[in-house]
């Protein structure tokens, strides 16, 4: 991808951007590890995204502040892990508002790759794919990689035409 920041007609290369969803679950940590390795191979920027589990309106302010602190800690731990794994990769973190699938699909519009775990902390753990990973595979604007549980060697790749 190239951009022309000053309108001079001279384009500058923009590094690829990989977005990875993190929620602290084992499969999201597997997705993070896979995305870090891929970012190194591609020379890509890695954007870690944690989507809030709750909307502010659903909780009182004190509970909301405590929840936001816990969610920021999940994101901070993921950023620290990615940075330690690949100090040469530009790693950023972002907190987003729910719903999770919509936030990730929206971010996929400007990404070269979206990486998610096959299922996180949602209520339907018995499904092969969680609702978020299914929605991302169906609606993302870039290729999607879905990482399965650590006990499995399976990685699902949803291409995009």
Q: Percent of residues in beta strands?
A: 15-25%
| CATH classification class | Alpha Beta
Query: Structural class of the secondary elements?
Result: alpha/beta
User: Rounded to an integer, what's the Rg over CA atoms?
Assistant: 16 Å
Q: What kind of oligomer do you see?
A: single chain
Question: Could you name the ranges where pLDDT drops below 50 across 5 or more consecutive residues?
Answer: 122-128
Helix content: 25-40%
From the N-terminal CA to the C-terminal CA, the straight-line distance is 17 Å
Spell the H/E element sequence: EEEHEHEHEHEE
CATH topology, what is it called? Rossmann fold
Number of domains: 1
CATH architecture: 3-Layer(aba) Sandwich
**Order of strands in the sheet with most strands:** 5-4-3-6-7-8
Count of helices?
4
Tally of strands: 8
Structure description:
Helix 3 (100-108) runs parallel beside helix 4 (131-139). The chain has one domain: 3-Layer(aba) Sandwich (Rossmann fold), CATH 3.40.50.12370. The chain has 161 residues and is α/β, with parallel strands linked by helices. The longest helix is centred in the middle third of the chain and has 25 residues, at 61-85. Helices cover 37% and strands 22% of the residues. It has four helices and eight strands. The radius of gyration is 16 Å and the shape is globular. It has a six-stranded mixed sheet with strand order 5-4-3-6-7-8, with helices on both faces.
């Amino acid at each position: 991808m190239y951009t022309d920041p000053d309108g001079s007609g001279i384009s500058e290369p923009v590094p690829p951007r990989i977005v990875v969803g993190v929620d602290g679950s084992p499969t999201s940590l597997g997705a993070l590890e896979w995305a870090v390795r891929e970012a190194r191979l591609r020379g890509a920027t890695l954007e870690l995204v944690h989507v809030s589990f709750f909307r502010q309106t659903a909780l009182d302010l004190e509970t909301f502040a405590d929840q936001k602190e816990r969610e920021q800690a999940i994101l901070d731990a993921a950023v620290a892990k990615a940075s330690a794994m690949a100090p040469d990769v530009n790693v950023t973190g972002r907190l987003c508002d729910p719903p999770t699938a919509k936030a990730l699909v929206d971010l996929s519009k400007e990404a070269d790759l979206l990486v998610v775990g096959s299922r996180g902390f949602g209520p339907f753990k018995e499904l092969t794919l969680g609702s978020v990973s299914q929605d991302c595979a169906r609606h993302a604007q870039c290729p999607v990689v879905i990482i399965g549980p650590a006990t499995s060697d399976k990685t699902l790749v949803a291409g995009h035409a």
